[in-house]
Design a protein that fits this description.
The complex is a heterodimer.
Chain A (H helix, E strand, L loop, with lengths): L2 H19 L14 H18 L1 E3 L4 E3 L3 H10 L4 E3 L6 E3 L11 E6 L6 H12 L6 E4 L15 H20 L16 H10 L9 E2 L7 E2 L1 H12 L4 E5 L2 E2 L6 H19 L4 E3 L2 E2 L7 H17 L4 E4 L11 H16 L4 E3 L6 H14 L4 H11 L13 H4 L9 H16 L9
Parallel strand pairs in A: 1-8, 5-6, 5-14, 7-9, 9-11, 10-12, 11-13, 13-14
Antiparallel strand pairs in A: 1-2, 3-4
Chain B lengths: L3 H9 L3 H13 L4 H21 L5 H21 L11 E6 L6 H12 L3 E4 L6 H11 L3 E5 L3 H16 L7 E5 L5 H6 L4 E2 L5 H9 L4
Parallel strand pairs in B: 1-2, 1-3, 3-4, 4-5
Classes of the chains: A alpha/beta, B alpha/beta.
């Protein structure tokens, strides 16, 4: 099948039919999907989508089909727990339900989108030293000083190895050498991904191999090769589904169904269980009723029917600004949605500093155990305050003392302002007092 | 009997067969081909773009719109008096950096094509080197890059760097656009031009390639 036929006829027609058949409809006023029956419908619709559409392989121009037996086997054999990291820094993601008192695990972005290696380390150190942070997700290095690598060349391998060296150094300097590092983020092609694991700097204890499905039910040989490499070396495959709302998908209902199909299909070829799922809009918005509805719907569907370690997104990505109110409201909203949807973890919590990560983590701890309706009520109150912040750059010195790596008075006041706001909204956490 | 406004409507509704039939009929009735093109096809595509912005149309509709344009435009070109249709010798290599998004890129490709440029579309998920390689292969005059998410912005800067390192930067005008780009950013990374809307690519290309 030509890819054009797949993307403009076959896939959109089938997903629209399946979503309509299962009567999956969103109430636009509800930011979080909390209906267990609808969650089960979404899960069944996801299975049907995978069965009827399969995965389009961009290299062979053929559709990879799945059988019902294969999918049942996948659902039956997934692991409900996963341990990431090593030694005393290892953490285990354990199953949690929407009102569970156990908080989700927190993986925070570390570093800075920059080629300034020393500055990158400083930002990463502020995150690694935070006790509430369960793992680091390296932000992509864009170069090494004045050296600007080119994709698909040995220089990209060097870049990725440098990222891994920095992560190990930062974790050791923070006294947490066994921390989990998410996935290699500076690599954009498969070879550096395999190289960095071959080096041992990233390994089966401290990092995952990204094997995620490509946009809207598509894979290629690269994905399969990476999954096979991960299996050979005992590396946890990073299953990720990030549908884009309003591009090929008409809305969050289709996206939630697609996340389930993506997840099950990727599990089939990678044998993984640990899953990251989130959506954003075609104009790169990571918050809002539509986005939260999709993320919570997919998470609840998985929580009830698949029971795997499931994590979602904890910030507004690169739009985060450390001193903006909007960013802090958005981080808090993501944490609350994760808690009341029964997610086991969140990744990229906060912006690029430790205090932002601490904020997201503390809100998650404060929100763990609250009633779903109470969480929804808070989300409704803050939803409009999560708008895109102004793109203001704040120098490191305004946020942290570069010598002691302690937050500045100005930054701490921002943090305290928000702890007060959220205490008044009904969330409490011991250190806020 | 159809009017050009009917053609505009069916283009916006992405009804390819009806648009094809209407285009043929309007031409057969002797209507000005340029009017059919600009007020029927192009305005209809603009309306489709507006529907996409309003989330009443989606990427598959845009791709179908592009196919519709490819179906109808040859009839219009055929109907033009010989030598009246602008056709430029300049070649433009176009593609999306890194991501699979092709919405903006396909619209720009359509606008450039119907305005007479020779457009070579290298598709989606390109690395910086792919743009350089194709531009060299086809002896292009311009490279147009669609940048849809942040890592791709960094890769665009990498493309400029590659062109400089290969000592070919002077051969190509490089333009960029996409959801997360701005004029200020484009200038800061060394692009020759930036456009907020797909249609702007035509004027930008004409200006940079010194076509009057």
């Amino acid at each position: 099948m030509k890819e054009e036929d797949f993307e403009i006829e076959f896939f959109p027609t089938r997903i629209a039919e399946i979503v309509a058949k299962h009567r999956i409809e969103r109430d636009p006023d509800q930011p979080v999907m909390t209906d267990p029956d609808l969650a089960d419908e979404i899960f069944q619709a996801g299975i049907e989508l995978l069965l009827e559409v399969g995965f389009y392989c961009k290299d062979t121009k053929r559709i990879v089909k799945f059988t019902e037996e294969e999918i049942k086997e996948i659902v039956r054999t997934r692991k409900s727990e996963v341990t990431l990291g090593k030694g005393r820094d290892a953490i285990t993601l354990k199953p949690r339900a929407p009102e569970d008192k156990q908080p989700p695990c927190i993986f925070a972005p570390a570093g800075l989108r920059s080629s300034k290696v020393e500055l990158y380390k400083l930002f990463a150190l502020t995150v690694a030293q935070e006790p509430t942070c369960d793992g680091l997700i390296p932000l992509p290095l864009t170069g090494i000083g004045n050296f600007k690598p080119a994709s698909g060349t040995p220089s990209e391998m060097l870049l990725t190895l440098t990222e891994a060296q920095i992560m190990n150094e930062v974790a050791a300097r923070a006294g947490r050498p066994g921390l989990f590092f998410g996935i290699p983020m500076s690599a954009t092609t498969p070879l550096p991904l395999m190289t960095v694991f071959a080096s041992g700097l990233y390994n089966k204890y401290n990092c995952c191999m990204p094997v995620q499905v490509l946009q809207d039910m598509r894979i290629n040989h690269d994905r399969l090769n990476l999954a096979y490499f991960a299996q050979l070396h005992g590396i946890v495959p990073w299953i990720s589904s990030c549908p884009v709302l309003y591009a090929y998908l008409t809305g969050p209902e289709q996206a939630a169904v697609e996340i389930i199909a993506h997840t099950l299909g990727t599990m089939a070829f990678s044998d993984g269980s640990f899953t990251q799922a989130m959506c954003c809009t075609v104009d790169s918005r990571y918050v809002g009723n539509d986005v939260w509805w999709c993320n919570s719907a997919a998470a609840l569907a998985a929580e009830r029917n698949l029971k795997v370690p499931w994590i979602s997104f904890g910030s507004i990505g690169d739009l985060m600004r450390p001193l903006s109110d909007e960013s802090w409201y958005a981080t808090a909203a993501q944490s609350i949605v994760a808690c009341i949807s029964g997610m086991e973890g969140m990744w990229m919590v906060g912006g690029s500093t430790g205090l932002e990560a601490r904020w997201g983590a503390e809100v998650a701890r404060a929100a763990a155990g609250i009633k779903v309706n109470d969480g929804v009520a808070i989300i409704k109150q803050i939803a409009k305050k999560c708008e895109e912040p102004k793109p203001i750059k704040t120098p490191f010195e305004e946020l942290y003392d570069p010598q002691s790596l302690t937050p500045t008075k100005k930054f701490l006041e921002h943090y305290k302002k928000f702890t007060k706001i959220f205490r008044e909204l009904g969330l409490n956490y011991p250190t806020w007092d | 009997m159809y009017a050009v406004s009917d053609l505009r409507r069916v283009v916006a509704e992405v009804k390819t067969q009806e648009a094809e039939a209407m285009t043929k009929e309007l031409l057969a009735r002797g209507l000005d081909p340029v009017t059919i093109l600009e007020e029927g096809i192009v305005q209809g595509l603009n309306d489709l773009g507006a529907k996409f912005e309003a989330r009443k149309a989606f990427v598959p509709d845009l791709v179908k719109g592009s196919i519709l344009a490819r179906t109808c435009i040859p009839y219009i070109i055929e109907a033009l008096p010989k030598g009246s249709m602008q056709k430029f010798s300049q070649k433009i290599v176009i593609g999306t950096m890194l991501s699979q998004h092709n919405i903006g890129k396909n619209l720009v490709r359509t606008f450039l094509s119907i305005n007479g440029f020779d457009v070579i579309d290298i598709g989606e998920q390109n690395q910086p080197f792919d743009f350089y390689q194709k531009a060299e292969e086809v002896k292009a005059d311009m490279i147009a890059v669609s940048v849809m998410f942040l890592p791709a912005r960094e890769k665009f800067a990498e493309l400029i760097n590659i062109l400089k390192q290969m000592e070919v930067r002077h051969k190509y005008r490089v333009i960029v656009g996409g959801a997360i780009t701005t004029q200020k950013w484009a200038e800061s990374v060394g692009a020759d031009g930036w456009g907020a809307q797909a249609r702007e690519a035509v004027d930008l290309a004409k200006k940079l390639l010194k076509i009057t």
